[in-house]
Amino acid sequence: MRRVPTKALVGFSVLALVVACAALAPWIAPFDPNDQDILNSLAPPLAMGDGGMHLLGTDRLGQDILSRIIYGSRVSLFVAFGAAGASALIGVPLGLAAGFFGRVVESVVLVLADMILSIPFILLALVVMSVLGASLPHLVLAFASVRWAQFARVSYALSLELRERDYVLACRAGGVGLLRTLVVHVLPNMLSPIIVIATLELAFAILMESGLSFLGLGAPPETPSWGGMLQEGRDELDTAWWLAAAPGFAIMITVIGWNFLGDWIRDSTDPRLQGVLR
After folding, report:
1. End-to-end CA distance of the chain
2. Which residues of 168-181 are buried (b: 16+ CB within 10 A; e: fewer)?
3. Which of 71, 192, 219, 238 lies at a 20 to 30 A Cα distance from 33?
4. Backbone CA torsion sign across 202, 208, 211, 213
5. Would you give per-residue pLDDT tens digits along the chain (278 residues)?
6. How many angstroms separate the most distant Cα atoms in the chain?
7. Are 40 and 57 in contact (CB under 8 A)?
8. What is the DSSP letter of 151?
9. Rounded distance, CA 134 to CA 49, Å?
């Protein structure tokens, strides 16, 4: 039995903590994230308040930083899973279509993907969010409208290889329908690379959600989010460093956790690396 690398264990531990915080937020958060206590505005870490100790301090409105980070994990995970899932649902079928449905479909999909990939992501996301407005569903839609090209490109490259495999040729010779061939025989053999791409996209989505929230185009102001907290603490770095340090650290360890997990999945599923890793 192979030993799980330390990096993978770290990734699993970090992500389990983040998921637990998101799922159990109402029970483990010491304060309501939107409760204001102006008398304890900008209280430092470990300061006592009316309802107990503020372990990570408070913001300008007296809101508990730890509680807002715990609830902010819900926003980050919702956007990350929603964005990666929607991008995969759009990009993977398009990539399969480009690989199996002939030159016309291939040209259209690849041209669209190249157009999307040639424009900086943050610029396209800013345009989408500016038009639709700031909300979590719109944020997921903005990611999916841009990041599907990553999944389409990977799926297309895999399709070029898989369509020449013996079992695919046997399905064609046996009269098996193309749709059934794709769903039953081709797609399962593409799952491992797609899962690796999805884990990296999850980390990217968390970073970009934080960036858009920092710019005021992500989660609504009343919704606790790590990027919004960074934006609030930007002007208080000299006097209240904890406002930006706490959400910044949460973003950093979560992204590192996803990257560690993605690296382990890639190493575990790539047969070319098995002999090196043993």
Report:
1. 11
2. beebeeeeeeeeeb
3. 238
4. negative
5. 466 677 778 888 988 999 999 999 999 998 888 888 888 888 888 888 777 788 888 888 888 999 999 999 998 899 889 999 999 999 999 999 888 888 888 899 999 998 888 888 778 777 877 787 777 888 888 888 888 998 999 899 888 888 778 777 787 777 777 777 777 778 888 888 888 888 888 888 888 888 888 877 777 777 888 888 888 888 787 888 888 888 999 999 998 888 888 878 777 765 544 544 44
6. 77
7. no
8. H
9. 32
Residue-range domain boundaries for the chain = 6-272
Residue corresponding to tokens 């994990």: 73
Instruction: Please count the other Cβ atoms lying within 10 Å of the Cβ belonging to residue 89.
Output: 13
Query: In the numeric block, which tokens belong to residue 148?
Result: 């599907």
Query: Rounded to 5 degrees, what are φ and ψ at 54?
Result: -95, 95
> What is the Cα–Cα distance from 56 to 44, expressed in whole angstroms?
7
Rg (CA), the chain: 22
Whether residue 162 contacts residue 189, with contact meaning beta carbons closer than 8 Å, is answered with yes
The token pair at 223 is: 């919704």
Residue 57: closest CA among 72, 44, 71, 38: 44
User: Could you tell me the pTM of the whole model?
Assistant: 0.85
As separate numbers, helices (DSSP H) first and strands (DSSP E) second, the chain gives 12, 2
Q: What is the DSSP letter of 120?
A: -
- Please give the CATH number for the structural domain made up of 6-272: 1.10.3720.10
> How far are the Cα atoms of 1, 10, 172, 203, 267 from residue 5, in angstroms, in the given order?
12, 9, 42, 20, 10
- Closest by Cα among 152, 22, 130 to 86: 152
Tokens representing 2?
């192979």
